[in-house]
């Protein structure tokens, strides 16, 4: 992954590890390769492999034990202070971040991405190695899984891109507390809502005029004082943005607030986002239009439970229908800014 005004580490460690693995190794010893991460000569980073095919990221300087690492609980990952003599160097203490890739080969790719994120964190913030590892570990803990990866469909990709685009707008306008009101990943009927004051359903469409798919609860405006539909046109485009770029942009906006960052990552994971799939996500760049906003009122075309003389039998579920948004008053996000500010309230 590339980052403006910083060194890019995306994909650099894989070839180095492959080269090291071709060399002869001995049990209990490491062979490694230096990685330049900043212009600070006091910081050293080495990517290394041991005799059991486990990968290590060694970073110095290191200052004592750090109890924070016990909070990470990342399967297969070990973080400790360790003295190593690497490839003939004099013995030295390092912060040793290692993964049992010899026995858990499925963790090889995500660990290398994790290690590259640690290197980026050091280069970006000039944090100490321990701070960089901890911050990166908190960022990754929601996504560290050996389970099956979700299939990347266009519907899912477009949907989450729309929600992240709207969340970016909210954070930029009203602050990071907007993350708490992103309710779509919690399987709520509306993607963003706060109490009974306001709900926003985010939809994406490849068509113009917009065509959106809804269930019979999403456009029920009787529940909230205001209900808006926010639409984005989303198309595949080589010059477009990628899902990891949208995620990174929000992470940068959140900054050092660990509570909000953890809440954001929890919701990302619940929405199906997986760090191990980022190499797949970046192969699908998207062009995302500016938002079109529609107030759901009596004139808005919809089907809700109140549309039926008798409510549908409870044994009938997942009723969905398509709406073409024509002949409606189209607004902008700025035009409804006064209402949207409620989504920055953390109730």
Can you walk me through this structure?
The protein has 347 residues and is of the alpha+beta class. It has 2 domains: 131 residues, no CATH class; 191 residues, no CATH class. It contains 8 helices and 12 strands. The longest helix has 21 residues.
Keywords:
27% helix, alpha+beta, 2 domains, five-stranded antiparallel sheet, 347 residues
If you compute it from the alpha carbons, what radius of gyration comes out, rounded to the nearest whole angstrom? Answer: 24 Å
SS class = alpha+beta
Silhouette: elongated
Largest sheet, if any?
Answer: 5 strands, antiparallel
Task: Report, as a whole number of angstroms, the end-to-end distance.
Answer: 36 Å
Mean pLDDT: 85
Sketch the topology as an H/E string, one letter per element: HEEEEEHHHEEEEHHHEEEH
Order of strands across the biggest sheet?
1-2-3-5-4
Domain count, please report it: 2
Q: Give the % helix.
A: 25-40%
Give a brief outline of the structure.
By secondary structure, the chain is α+β, with helices and mostly antiparallel strands. Helices cover 27% and strands 22% of the residues.
Helix-strand layout with pairing:
Layout: H1 13-21, E1 30-34, E2 44-50, E3 55-60, E4 77-84, E5 92-99, H2 108-125, H3 129-140, H4 154-174, E6 192-194, E7 198-205, E8 211-215, E9 226-241, H5 243-254, H6 258-270, H7 278-281, E10 286-288, E11 292-295, E12 320-324, H8 337-340
Parallel strand pairs: 7-9
Antiparallel strand pairs: 1-2, 2-3, 3-5, 4-5, 6-7, 8-12, 9-10, 9-11
Helix pairs in contact: 2-3, 3-6, 4-5
